[in-house]
Design brief:
The complex is a heterodimer of chains A (316) and B (390).
Chain A: H1 3-15, H2 20-30, H3 48-60, H4 67-78, E1 89-91, E2 109-114, E3 117-121, E4 123-125, E5 140-142, E6 149-152, H5 159-191, E7 193-194, E8 197-198, H6 203-226, H7 238-263, H8 274-284, H9 291-301, H10 310-315
Parallel strand pairs in A: 1-2
Antiparallel strand pairs in A: 2-3, 3-6, 4-5, 7-8
Chain B: H1 19-37, H2 47-50, H3 54-62, H4 81-94, H5 99-115, H6 118-129, E1 135-138, E2 154-158, E3 161-169, E4 179-185, E5 198-204, E6 210-216, E7 222-235, E8 239-240, H7 246-258, H8 268-278, H9 284-312, H10 318-343, H11 355-365, H12 376-386
Parallel strand pairs in B: 1-4
Antiparallel strand pairs in B: 2-3, 3-7, 4-5, 5-8, 6-7
Helix pairs in contact in B: 1-4, 5-6, 5-7, 7-10, 8-10, 8-11, 9-10, 10-12
The chains are: A alpha+beta (316), B alpha+beta (390).
Chain lengths: 316, 390
């Protein structure tokens, strides 16, 4: 990613995170919500991997607006030459129910893919959102008889691709959250004194931190590769994405357990900042398929009667 | 809430594969398949430690697949670390008998290139690149395992060079090797700092006073050894690099030792063969278990390629290598456990012929994975230091 873009993003996420409206305005103004929309359609036209880097940064910053969802929705909308300026989006797959939709109280539209059609719906919140979910999930009902936009998706954009791109978005968020948890846990264990020295000096605590580091590093490696595999307006390499999401979802759960253990009871309180990451992780790891969902797909892929060889797929 | 700058503690930049690598890979793969077909070797688990065949090593040498990254004037081929990685990945994935030359090609040759005399480079490296000259590692001692700076082997200056006395242990392949790089004390420790006063020596193993005795492993096989140096007289140029610089040189050697794909591919051959038997046999639970192994393998491979790229760029990614070895060794043990569990649902007499011995080899040969080349505990210490905890 270009330094200028990275610096701008860092500044926006760092400075504006307290105020959701200001943050959204800054993200809109910077063009980041339209990062994957071609310049010909008034977008930023960034490569896919740059958009995923923005998503990873936003997760580290605990961004409380549907930035990642909107970035992806705008990408899908642009494939049918549509644009709803300034709108905030949420997403769901064909198998998701409508009773646990992220940003149910703040997104303007739901974008989904139904039988080859991109549908954009207005919706209403049925009940209170679950603030603890970290991205304000709640039950919604669709508004009106028909979507405000219904357009035939291009051939490459199948419901599988929709799900895979969603999974990749969540992988990037999980990686950002894990990286930040590693930093928080390092800071805490270095500062906290017990038995007359900092926790970080105990081998038992170092073991926990190296486990967090190992899980984080391997998840980030799988992500880095997976984000390079989709080309704009093409179906991605689903195995690379499946590997990234399965790894990040499984790793994030382990990282949370270890981070709480290293912190002690403070890590389990709502007040302490770790909780914000934990709530998000517990949601993101399930969205667009949890680890078992993707592990089964990978395992089945290599054990079909006619499956190709692992060596060729893994080593190229 | 504000972002506190979240540093990247580890660096694994992506290393996409090139056309040249892909065609090299195809060439190596074809050669290996031919060798298997014509009875050149039977695939084995943990082949880089346990499957030794000097004739096969010579064949690889003749093809230019040893000493790949060394200069041509010393018999090398001036290929990139990533090209070398392609070859080592394929050899490991095929379970080829590469143990004879593995250490010479991986680390000893490079140490000679870095620190040896011109005469040593010219006389030894071309033979190592040809797959006809082998080497062993002389680091651990009976009283110095993970605490390597506690080595008691000493080298004293004599008019003709050096006199070496002491014992090294766990030296894989020493009984079939021509040379060993020995870490020895050449002057006393500086108070508590024991890392000073150590030096590396390139010791010809046929020298007078060298006595090598095999140690049987848990399966009854001899691949590692104890080596006694009973006042071995060495020429002056046996000193490798600088006197007193042995610790730093040894750490550089350990980066080479730890950074390769053998730290997670030792039993890939078992996984690969088991997959064939498991076709159409797995329920969802079994598929998930297999899928989890493959996701970890995928991550390890990407990290390993990244390390090769960093070596290519002249960096020394020692902590990254430690991380890959740590994750990789644990992965290898998971492979044994998981494959054993998955195969248990299929009667053993339905397995293809080669699978049962391969599983048994893996069970017997993999336990030292988390010990050799630095224990997981030592690696965690390195990672903790990188994280600023030490």
């Amino acid at each position: 990613m270009e330094k200028l873009i990275e610096d701008t993003a860092a500044r926006i996420f760092m400075e504006q995170t307290e105020d959701a409206n200001k943050l959204w305005a800054a993200l809109e103004e910077s063009g980041f919500t339209r990062a994957w929309v071609p310049e010909s359609l008034d977008g930023f036209g960034l490569p896919l991997e740059d958009g995923f880097e923005l998503i990873r940064m936003s997760a580290k910053a605990l961004t409380a607006v549907p930035f990642a969802e909107t970035l992806l929705a705008n990408y899908f909308l642009a494939t049918v030459d549509q644009h709803l300026p300034g709108a905030k989006f949420t997403l769901c797959t064909t198998t998701d129910s409508l009773d646990n939709i992220p940003f149910a109280d703040s997104a303007d539209y739901l974008l989904r893919l139904e039988r080859g059609t991109i549908e954009v719906w207005r919706f209403n919140l049925v009940d209170q959102v679950n603030e603890l979910s970290g991205n304000r999930a709640g039950q919604i009902i669709l508004e009106g008889e028909s979507p405000v936009i219904a357009a035939a998706a291009p051939g490459w954009l199948s419901s599988n691709v929709y799900e895979q791109m969603g999974a990749l978005v969540r992988s990037a968020q999980l990686c950002g959250a894990m990286e930040h948890i590693l930093s928080i846990t390092l800071q805490y264990t270095s500062a906290r004194q017990q038995f007359g020295r900092s926790l970080a000096k105990f081998q038992a605590i170092q073991l926990i931190l190296t486990r967090i580091a190992a899980q984080t590093a391997s998840s980030c490696a799988a992500l880095q590769y997976a984000v390079m595999t989709p080309q704009l307006s093409q179906a991605p390499d689903w195995i690379a994405i499946a590997c990234a999401k399965a790894k990040a979802s499984a790793a994030a759960g382990l990282v949370v357990t270890d981070a709480i253990q290293a912190h002690g009871a403070i890590g389990y309180t709502q007040e302490y900042m770790l909780s914000n990451y934990i709530h998000r992780i517990w949601r993101w790891r399930e969205d667009f398929g949890g680890e078992t969902y993707w592990q089964i797909k990978i395992g089945q892929h290599y054990t079909q009667p006619d499956s190709g060889s692992l060596i060729e797929d893994i080593f190229g | 809430m504000a972002v506190t700058s979240s540093m990247n503690h580890f660096n694994f930049p992506l290393a996409p594969s090139t056309e040249a690598e892909n065609s090299l890979r195809a060439e190596v793969r074809e050669f290996l398949q031919d060798e298997i077909k014509t009875g050149g070797f039977t695939p084995g688990a943990d082949c880089w430690m346990s499957e030794s065949c000097p004739e096969f090593s010579a064949k690889l040498g003749a093809r230019g697949w040893l000493g790949m990254v060394w200069p041509k004037k010393y018999g090398g081929h001036e290929r990139s670390p990533l090209e070398r990685l392609v070859v080592t990945e394929e050899l490991l994935a095929a379970g080829a008998p590469v143990a004879a030359h593995w250490i010479a090609d991986r680390q000893t040759g490079t140490q000679i290139l870095r620190f040896g005399s011109e005469q040593q480079r010219q006389s030894i490296l071309p033979r190592m690149a040809a797959g006809t000259c082998f080497a062993a590692i002389g680091m651990s001692e009976p009283q110095a395992g993970s605490d390597l700076a506690a080595v008691q082997t000493k080298a004293d200056k004599i008019p003709t060079g050096w006199r070496l006395s002491g014992r090294k242990i766990w030296s894989t392949g020493a009984h079939q090797s021509d040379y060993m790089i020995v870490l020895a004390r050449t002057s006393p420790a500086d108070g508590r700092n024991r890392q000073v006063g150590l030096s590396q020596f390139l010791v010809p193993l046929q020298a007078q006073g060298v006595e090598i005795s095999g140690i049987k492993d848990i399966a009854g096989n001899v691949h590692f050894n104890e080596t006694l140096f009973d006042g071995v007289e060495l020429e002056a140029d046996a000193l490798l690099g600088l006197e007193g610089n042995g610790w730093a040189q040894c750490m550089g050697e350990l980066v080479l030792e730890r950074s390769g794909p053998e730290r997670f591919l030792s039993n890939f051959v078992l996984l690969d063969r088991a997959l064939i038997s498991l076709r159409g046999q797995l329920d969802k639970h079994g598929a998930a278990i297999l899928g989890e192994l493959i996701t970890t393998l995928n991550a390890l491979r990407l990290m390993s390629r990244s390390i090769a790229r960093q070596l290519e760029n002249g960096l020394s990614p020692d902590t990254e290598a430690a991380l890959v070895k740590l994750i990789g060794n644990s992965f290898e043990q998971d492979v044994v456990t998981r494959v054993r569990q998955l195969l248990s649902t299929i009667p053993r007499d339905h397995w293809p012929d080669e699978l049962a011995p391969m599983l048994d080899q893996s069970i017997f040969r993999l336990p030292p994975g988390t010990l050799r080349g630095g224990t997981s505990e030592i690696l965690r210490g390195m990672i903790a230091r990188q994280l600023g905890m030490r």
